[in-house]
Amino acid sequence: MNKKTVKDIDVQGKKVLMRVDFNVPVNDDGSVGDDTRIEAALPTIQYLLEQNASIILMSHLGRPKGEVKPEFTLKPVAAALSAKLGKPVAFAKDSVGEDAQTKAAALQAGEILLLENLRFYAEEEGKGCTDEAKATFTKALASLGEVYVNDAFGTAHRAHASTAGVTEYIEECAAGLLLEKEINYLAKTLEAPEHPFVAIIGGAKISGKIDVVINLMDKCDTILIGGGMAYTFFKAMGQKIGGSIHEDDKMELAKQIMADAKAKGVKFLLPVDNKIGDDFSNDCNTEIVAGDIPDGWEGMDIGPETQKLFAAEIASAKTVVWNGPMGCFEMPTFASGTFTIAQAVADNTECISIIGGGDSVAAIKQAKLDDKITHISTGGGASLELMEGKVLPGLDALSDK
Ligand code: AMP
Fold first, then answer.
1. Average pLDDT over residues 51-55
2. Which of 90, 181, 285, 398 gets the most CB atoms within 10 Å of its CB?
């Protein structure tokens, strides 16, 4: 990585303004539902504490859309972080107001302050704000710290005040250890993968993953397509798909992709059989079919022959990247494709395996196979954009080495 990391800059005794991704689920009783993202930020926080820095943490939570909405407060996260660190974490009830300023100014070495939800301010994302309002907000945020660290991989694909804007007003801007790790795994693997490199792409629609497929076409040996997006390819090939999810406006694109794969010598594998249902529900009637899907039925998972075919490809891979479920895995009746693929990736202990995207990550965790995966990305959108070959604004804005 050509950007400075927190270990390349002097943080000794300094006030560090740090963007984290604490966008965690909060239960009705106000407790944190899943603390994976808090855990993921601990290495950088602990490193900064060892350097006697004082840390001002900032994050968004949910989509309050520029308004103060108590259900999106970050206060429970301060308590959860405090419990993990075994030390107090102060909480400011605003992000740039008097409380934040007073508490940030009074912060001593080794102390931590968490600011209230950045997205209580429209200026954070900037939608509908004047340039002047955005600049005032961004400057006020930047004024809280002496150096800036971005450890929020989950929002690194957004050019917001806290992810990119503040870097205009702070001289030393570095990546946190989580951001560094994510970039090292994902970007480096995509740059120089060990072959055979197998990409597994699933999910509802072709439109959400099209740029990923196109970008990976130049890097992969094999692309396995599952999930709802497969049916657009089937329809483009003239097969009957019944009521399966598909995108009529992507037919030509689907044909083009298949032609490109052929021209580039990439093995492009679609499901050879499908588990279909007569209703979009867990307790519908099901059948396994190869080829045409009759009217009144829809494809909801990859079938057993496809599972075997895909698992065999995965077993011989040296690099595997997986994004998107193989079917409607939220319904147990149609979960077997996704879980079989999860098992196949976990079973190949010789390969570098990288999983990104909320649903595939959820599936691997549900199957309790997460400790068998080389790297599980903490950012669905950001990991997709890296796989699309895009530059992440939150990374790009950091100081060069
Ligand atoms: P994405 O956000 O594009 O990765 O899509 C994930 C969603 O795709 C999940 O909620 C799955 O239930 C859904 N999905 C996967 N396969 C199908 C399918 N064959 N038909 C409808 N939805 C699907």
1. 98
2. 398
According to DSSP, the β-strands at 274-277 and 286-289 are antiparallel
Give the pLDDT confidence score for residue 210 in this predicted structure.
87
Active site residues: 37, 205, 358, 381
- pLDDT band, residue 208 (cuts 50/70/90): confident
Asked if 201 and 230 touch (Cβ cutoff 8 Å), the reply is no
Q: What kind of fold does domain 186-387 have according to CATH?
A: Rossmann fold (3.40.50)
Q: How far is the CA of 78 from the centre of ligand 1 (A)?
A: 34
pLDDT in tens, 70-89: 999 999 999 999 999 999 99
pTM assigned to the model: 0.87
DSSP 400: B
| Distance from Cα 247 to the centre of ligand 1, integer Å | 13
**Residues shown for the chain:** 401
Q: Do the domains 186-387 and 6-178 match in fold?
A: yes
**Best mutation site among 359, 364, 388 for ligand 1, i.e. most ligand atoms within 8 A of its Cβ?**
359
Which DSSP symbol is given to 241? B
The long-range contacts involving 290-298, CB below 8 angstroms and separated by at least 24 positions, are 291/239, 292/239, 292/240, 292/241, 293/234, 293/239, 293/240, 293/241, 293/242, 293/244, 294/240, 294/242, 295/240, 295/242, 295/243, 296/242, 296/243, 297/242, 297/243, 298/241, 298/242, 298/243, 298/244, 298/245
From 328, 360, 384, the mutation candidate for ligand 1 (largest count of ligand atoms within 8 A of CB) is 328
Q: Where are the domains of the chain?
A: 6-178, 186-387
Top-level CATH class of 6-178?
A: alpha beta
Residue 271, φ and ψ in degrees, nearest 5: -60, 140
